[in-house]
Hints:
The chain has 425 residues and is of the alpha/beta class. The protein is built from 13 helices and 11 strands.
Amino acid sequence: MTDYNGYIATETIDGDEDGPLAGRTVAVKDNISTEGVRTTCGSKMLEDYVPPYDATVVSRLKSAGATIPGKTNMDEFGMGTTTETSAFGAVENPVAEGRVPGGSSGGSAAVVAAGDADMALGSDTGGSIRCPAAFCGVVGIKPTYGLVSRYGLVAYANSLEQIGPIAPSVEEAAELLDVIAGPDERDGTTREAPAAGEEYAEAADGDVDGLSIGVPTELVEGADEAVVETFWDAMAELESQGATYHEVDLPSVEHAVEAYYVIAMSEASSNLARFDGVRYGQSGGYDGNWNESFANAREEGFGEEVKRRVLLGTYALSAGYHDKYYKKAQDARAWVKQDFDEALSDADVLASPTMPVPPMKRGESLEDPLTMYLADANTTPVNLANLPAISVPAGETSEGLPVGLQLVGPAFGEKTIIRAGSALA
Ligand code: GLN
């Protein structure tokens, strides 16, 4: 265990002897299934759940020779931006005292930032890899939807999420991506990347000469002053290395957070229906009424944020409101996709601050879910558009708080964002 509470469990899982990751430790977020090792999703509901199989990414880590030093703490079922909704206690930011590490993969970013793992896997439904990477001053990649298998990832909102790497440098994150990426017959949404066969790690050569960067005005305007300043410093650094930038418009992103939360909560309400205390989760007891038994299990096992989302998601999908909320959100999603495609038709990558704010003080956002949702303004549009994005350290505010720079690429353009990001980290 760590004093900042980064791990839920520190059971070591050994990999094969040889392989590209031999001798290295890769911590795994606790919503990714590990055979014979407890996988809690940060929830009391799954406190004692031990999966009978490995997620595909975990089998790939093992055959690559990696050692898994433990399962990392997270917001319950991935629902959060601060890693404070975990049933196993909040995670502290190891590099910014009194601040949150970001979320929901806060444990993964924290153990990497603290040097308690060489690298880590997180999952990103609406920013959960990029946000904690930004807040802890490390690198995180959210791959293109379909590049990495989700088999064995406990679903939160499956149309939005991907597993991805967190590491101290872009090159190491790319090395980890090389191991986990690629089609999997157990996940029908995976696809062969167009340039398969070449290594992502090789793209981390720092060469940004001639790179054209679009800067979406909407994703910079709303950010904190200290964040914006650090962002432009990093942009100036890229420019000095030969990149050019121009402003682009993404008018649809104004609606992205709303659309994201409607879709994510709707999918969550359906995905979490399986936790009824019979097939999974803690038992709700039984005295002749199954509905009561399910209700007891869910009342006991789920935390407040999860309950809020299941209720809202169920409401958004209900017969009378489906068209008003869910369908509208899907329309907005299509618009966001189209906007990104257009912006990327005359830029190689798009750049913005990863998070509009520096790491929040601990305890601040739990009282105010709406403010917490709005902090996802820059990350959620990328999931709606299924695109790849990387968060690299851009520098620090004058208070010494880490700021992340997000680079978004075209579908399966991981090499481009890796190359661009490696000029900074
Ligand atoms: N903060 C977002 C949410 O709570 C993103 C979470 C995630 O990517 N898993 O939904």
